[in-house]
Amino acid sequence: xxxxxxxxxxxxxxxxxxxxxxxxxxxxxxxxxxxxxxxxxxxxxxxxxxxxxxxxxxxxxxxxxxxxxxxxxxxxxxxxxxxxxxxxxxxxxxxxxxxxxxxxxxxxxxxxxxxxxxxxxxxxxxxxxxxxxxxxxxxxxxxxxxxxxxxxxxxxxxxxxxxxxxxxxxxxxxxxxxxxxxxxxxxxxxxxxxxxxxxxxxxxxxxxxxxxxxxxxxxxxxxxxxxxxxxxxxxxxxxxxxxxxxxxxxxxxxxxxxxxxxxxxxxxxxxxxxxxxxxxxxxxxxxxxxxxxxxxxxxxxxxxxxxxxxxxxxxxxxxxxxxxxxxxxxxxxxxxxxxxxxxxxxxxxxxxxxxxxxxxxxxxxxxxxxxxxxxxxxxxxxxxxxxxxxxxxxxxxxxxxxxxxxxxxxxxxxxxxxxxxxxxxxxxxxxxxxxxxx
Length: 438
Description:
This protein is of the alpha+beta class. It is 21% helix and 21% strand.
C-alpha cells in the first residue's frame, strides 16, 4: 500500500465533464520508491480516488484542472472509503474543451474533445479558435481567445513561418537524412539573416482623443531625433570591425504619433553621409496600429467590452506579414564561389583616396519598424514562441529598440528588449511617466 504525502492527500472537489467519470483524483503520485513503475514504457503511479468500491481496468480518473486525467491500471486495493489505484499517467482528459497533451512531444497539439476526424482536419493546428460556448479559461476570458501553440511549451516549432523546407526525397532513409543535413548546412552558411528592429514611438500628447491631434511632445521629438542618429551610425558603420549594416526599409504604423516619430528618425539618420543604398520609406501600414493583441495573464476576468475589443486577428496578421526568414538564396556550385560570397568588409575599388570604402555584409539585411508598445510586446512573445498572454509583463519605453534576428534556418533570437541606451536619463519615459520611480 502506498503512503501518500500531505499534498497527495489534499481533497479536490469533483467537476462536471463530458463522459462518465467514475472517480475524481485526490492525489498526485505517492512518495514511495514505487511511485513510478515502468510497464511497457508507460509511467505508472499510485493515485487516491473518491471511489468507495473497486475500479475496473481503464476507468477514467481526473483532477479539478480538467486538463489531465488518469486511467486505472491493475492492481487496485481498498482502503476504507477510498480506493488506491495504480494508474497510467498522464492521459489526455476527455473533459470538454480540454487541450490534448500529446504523449509524443514532436506531435502537434489538437483538440481532444473533437472525435470527428473530418472536423479535426478542418481545425487550425495552432492559434486562437473555438466556439462561442467553449466556456472560460480559468474563469478569466473565453477559451476561444486563448492562444494554442502548435507544440507543447517549451518545444520549438521549426516551421513557424511556413518556410521550412521538407526533407530531401530519397528511397534510402539514411541517404535522405544525409542530403537534408548537407542542404541545411549550406542554407545556414550562405543564407541571409534577417534583422528586425522594432521602435516604439516617442512620447506624445495623450489628452486628445482624435488621432491627428495625438502628436509628439517636445521631449518625444528629441527622443526620436536621438534614435535616428543612433540608427544612422548603425547604417554607416564606424570601421571595418564595426562595419555598416544594410538597412533595406523603414516601416511605420498608420497612427499620427508613429508616423511623426518615423519622419524624425529618417531625417536624423543623415543618409546623405552614407555611400550605401538609400533606405526605402514604406507606406504606413494600419496592421501595425496599436491595439489589444490578446488577453493578459495575470489579470482579472475580462469584461464583455474587453472581449469585444481584443484585436488579435489584425495584430497576428501583422506578425505573419513581417516576421519570417528571408528567401533562401541559390546555393553556391563550388567552393570558389562559396568563398567569394563569404567576403565582406571593404571595397578597394575606390583608388582616389587612401580610405577604403566600408561595405555592408550582403548576408545580413535589416528592417526598422516604428510602431507601438502592445504590438511590440506581442511580437516579442510570438517570435520567441512564448505564451502571448504574457505580453503585459514586459515594458518598452518611448523610442526604445527591440531587436530580433531570424536566421536562414528559422531560429529566432532577441538581441535587445526595450533598449534606451541612446537616451539620457532625463529623456527616459514610458508614456507620460518620467524616469523610473513610477
